[in-house]
Amino acid sequence: MWQGQTAARICALDSFVALMAGLIILLFCVTKFGWGFKHYLKEVNTGKGIRVSEKLKPYLLYVLPVLILFILIQGLL
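The chain above was modelled as a monomer; its predicted structure follows.
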């Protein structure tokens, strides 16, 4: 059915693709190569609901990408 591949490999590939997509979207949203953080904040804070603070900038720019890369590397090992 899977042509010799196990369900675990397919699940690992799905997880890898999902994490890479999340990393790419995150970096696009908050870096100057994409929207930029100010445009991201403007878009996120439109409408009703919880507002995102500018204090999250270091977390979204540095901490979260490192965490995603760490999880990716751990998954590959």
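The CA atoms of residues 28 and 34 lie 4 Å apart.
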